[in-house]
Amino acid sequence: MVNDSDDLVEQLDRHLSSSNQAWLFGAGISKGAGVPLMPLLTARVRALAEVTQHKVVLDALFNDLPSGSHIEHLLSHLADYATLAERAKANEVTTVRGTKIKASALTDAYKEVVGWIAETVRWGYRDGGAGEPEAFGKINKPLVTIDAHNGFVQALFKTAQAGLHDRRGPIRLFSLNYDTLLEDALALSAVSYWDGFSGGAVAFRNHQFGEEPPGGYRAHIVKLHGSIDWYLGEDGKVWRLREGDAYPARTGRVLIYPQATKYVATQRDPFAAQFDLFRRTLSTTADNVLAVCGYSFGDDHINQEIESAMVAPNNRTTMLVFYSEGGGWAECLSKWRTSAWGKRLYVATEKGLYVGTDEPYHPPADGKEYDWWTFAGVTKLLNDGAKEFL
After folding, report:
1. 257 membership: H or E segment, kind and range
2. For 24, what's the count of Cα atoms within 13 Å in the CB-facing half-sphere?
3. Omega within 30 of 0 (cis) for the link into 248
4. pTM for the whole thing?
5. How many CB atoms within 10 Å of residue 276?
């Protein structure tokens, strides 16, 4: 290893205490909390559909999709077909493999699937692997826990950012997850945050595309794929509501809606506004840090947004990626490491710390692996510093 390997580890710590930073979280940060990853969530939804009239619709659409497709792909496919069916004279659509489906059946299936997702994510699910029995979380006996998220929030805001919040802007937390664990952990740690809504237990979305987020908060949380507590009202407004409330009147949950056609105008499309915030954060010309945890880089849309920003000649964002290379390198990560901006890409894996195309600095002793790429490992990193792992 080159002589500056210790300095690179120190740089990792300095970046994590940067006064201008953002985070991108994927499903991996909630797996340990009892929220299933996408393959298991997909299997759970298909199992729930087995005894309903929606099984025929879901099976037909999954037959259209490539192998390995998951529930988000299905929802996009459902919405696309529903839009086509609603425009068609017969009010139905024929799938690629020849199944005819009515628009109403597609719409009903979409609402049911989103409801199953929300129930599973909110209360948790365990598939019975690793010698444990299968378990289904319920409102009176949830499986989901918040300890790991509480620990992370405490480490980020009470340790790594100690003394900085009076002279810095908010930390921006971008999440691809539907669960509310990050928001709940922020509240439980008394960290003020903004999420685009105004109100209390019942809140209305008042942030629109192109607007600047407000100041005065320690965190901004931006749910890029929606949330289990978002609902679309009959008048086109987006609401954040408590589970079980009968008011206000609504047309369905707002989760990973694939297009803006259901909204009155682009300005009222929450996903356009969310991605606008992500894009602007990445595109800043000031020194900036984007840390990524729990994300496997399987979303091309997200990857394209990151790459488009990072290749800009005046971009000064440094990326810190916490990632397991056990399943191989994501194609985009391999590409980015060899790019012109690769020296601004730090990847902490179980094998060491990579910077650009260099081999890993500080590889672990034979037979050992680092866990600093995990959510718990990142929390320890924030609390104790990188040298505690070496």
Report:
1. none
2. 26
3. yes
4. 0.92
5. 16
Confirm if 149 and 198 have CB atoms less than 8 A apart. no
Candidate from 48-52, 266-270, 331-335, 358-362 with smallest mean pLDDT = 266-270
Domain borders along the chain are: 5-33+145-389, 38-136
Nearest to 389 by CA among 12, 23, 3: 12
- Specify whether the CB–CB gap between 309 and 290 falls below 8 A: no
pLDDT at 258 over 70: no
Whole-number Å distance between alpha carbons of 378 and 156: 10
Q: Quote the pLDDT of residue 2.
A: 44
Contacts of 103 (CB under 8 A, 6+ apart): 82, 85, 86, 88, 91, 92, 93
Q: What angle do CA 275, 276, 282 make, to 5 degrees?
A: 85
Measure the CA–CA gap between 199 and 206, rounded to whole angstroms: 10
Q: What is the largest CA-CA distance in the chain?
A: 71
Is residue 192 predicted with pLDDT exceeding 80?
yes
Q: For residues 270 and 290, which has the higher predicted lDDT (pLDDT)?
A: 290
Q: Are residues 147 and 188 in contact, defined by beta-carbon separation less than 8 angstroms?
A: no
**Which value, to the nearest 10 degrees, does the dihedral of the CA atoms of residues 306, 307, 313, 314 take?**
0
Looking at the predicted structure, is the pLDDT value of residue 4 above 80?
no
